[in-house]
Amino acid sequence: MDSSIALILLQDGVVNGAIYALLGMALVLVFAVTRVIFIPQGEFVAFGALTLAMLVDGKVPGTAYLLPLLGAVCLALELLRAVRTRSFAGLPKSLVTCVVLPLALLWLTKSYTGPENSLWLNMLLTLLLVIPMGPMVYRIVYQPLAEATVLVLLIVSVAVHFALTGLALVFFGAEGWRTPAFVSGQVDLGFMTWSAQSLFVVATCALLIIALWLFFGKTLYGRALRATAVNRRGARLVGISTTMSGSLTFTLATAIGAMSGMLIAPITTVYYDTGFLIGLKGFVGAIIGGLASYPVAAAGSLLVGVLESFSSFWASAYKEVIVFTLIIPVLVWRSFSTHHVDEEE
Q: Which of 68, 82, 98, 200 could form a disulfide with 102 if both were Cys (CB 3.0 to 4.6 A apart)?
């Protein structure tokens, strides 16, 4: 290996690591606020990529039909809750968010879809179709189990992963999809030449990380999520709704997943089950951060990306094994360096 090959591998590693960093931070966020190890994070990566690819191809994506289906289930749950508690005040809002909005997006998608449409408008429509699925999944699956143990929530996450993978196969099919690059050309940095697409991905990831930092540090809702992450019971005592915190957290995680999917769509062919492996690599980064530290999770995700890139050169058949083996020494080190804390009752 000479220096030119090493720099090319480093470029690929940084690009992949930036994506893994976003996913790792999303996983840390979800776990800190809701205690859910969000295994289905990768499915929203696939949803974002496949939705954008189908819109670029001039076809109505499966998410346009899946969103009203999830909305109908959410509305049914809200009706049951209203009947059981004899409180119907929230039903108009639920009707709008669970039925009217998904059907409006379905109509907009069918009316708008065409191969000549702008790539950037397709990206916006993709976000509108995918992001509402996050709070819907939370309402259907996780909100009724908000007080369950971490083990139960982990088992449920595995079940949600398989359910979403099956729905992706039904609504998107087994065909792989790819999108055109957002930007074209090469950028000469002096010591090496980077593709404009790679720089766009890294810059976008950096901007999203900065936006998250500003959100958590400067906004009321961000501070509410931080308070819930520190102490759920204390947050409830001062009037912060843990249900709102959970729904907002899943909204952010879904948005990050959809953006990550759109960023990787020009780089690799995406299938209905591609997101699972990508999400697991983000999970490795989150584990390095102890599912608690955002900066360490981001740094660990970059390490995962670089390690994967160089492993693909030296031992391509074992690159996945090498990446996931990284978890073992991290877990061993953390088991000896941290003290057990009983879960909050």
A: 68
The domain containing residue 32 runs over which residues?
A: 3-58+146-179+191-336
Are the CB atoms for 305 and 205 separated by under 8 Å?
A: no
> 275: closest CA among 294, 292, 254?
254
Identify the helix (H) or strand (E) that includes residue 309.
helix 294-314
pTM exceeds 0.90:
no
Query: Which value, in Å, is the radius of gyration of the alpha carbons in the chain?
Result: 21
- What tens digit of pLDDT does each residue of 150-196 get? 889 899 999 999 999 999 999 988 888 888 888 887 777 766 777 78
Cα separation, 154 vs 163, in Å, equals: 14
Three-state SS for 193?
A: strand
Q: Is residue 209 part of a domain?
A: yes
**For tokens 């999917």, what's the residue?**
261
30 by Cβ neighbours in 10 Å (0-12 / 13-18 / 19+) ranks as buried
Q: Which residue has the tokens 């009217």?
A: 100
